[in-house]
Design brief:
Elements lengths: L3 E7 L6 H13 L4 E5 L2 E2 L3 E2 L4 H12 L4 E3 L3 E2 L13 H17 L6 E2 L8 H6 L7 E3 L3 E4 L5 E3 L2 E4 L7 H16 L3 E7 H4 L2 H16 L3 E3 L8
Parallel strand pairs: 1-2, 1-12, 1-13, 2-5, 3-6, 7-8, 11-12
Antiparallel strand pairs: 3-4, 8-9, 9-10
Helix pairs in contact: 1-7, 5-7
Length: about 230
Amino acid sequence: MRGRLLVSVSSVFSDTLGAVKTLVSDLDAEGIPVSLLVAPHIDGNWHLAKDADTKGWLLSQQEQGRALILNGFDQPAQGRRSEFATLGAHEARLRLAGSTRQMHKIGFDTDMFAPPRWRLSPGTLEVLPEFGFRLVASTKGLHDLHTGDFQQCRNLSVGEGFGAARWWRRNIIRAAERGAARGNTIRLSASGRNLLDKKVARDFQKAALAAVAKGADPGDYRDVATI
């Protein structure tokens, strides 16, 4: 049985846009689609609605069929607690309402959600169906909110609160190879911040290519329609 490869990038904003574009273009050329994790605010200072370049590029990607995943309301800076990791249902509902409303206002609509650093509280999972979400991705795996099914598949992250050192990147490449050889679903993700380092971007691309070489079929998160 062939495995599946899902690649995603978070922290897409003014400072990282160039590096993200380069990676997306490089992997597109290899037939490996990249899902983009987007948020209306990052670190409390950057606002997607006010960044014409990033907003314009993301809208063009959406129009061209790129998979976009809502990545919270105010994606936190590295070193801070993940936004949706511990929220109860009420607070999660408020943040999701604000996020979906703001994204819709500037032209973005998606039925997929992934909390920053993939850390999902039970309260957040409880209220997500109220906002029309179909798929939720967490550290543990993929939740199909239409069927209630769950596929366990851990995420292999570079940055996003995880490592990015050379030894960590080597481990990510090896883990991607092993998982693909076993026919598992391989989820690779990177923070746009870390892609600013060309060595990190190179090794992240290597991990994706290694998974494909071991038999994983590349796709995006929309392909996980029924788990």
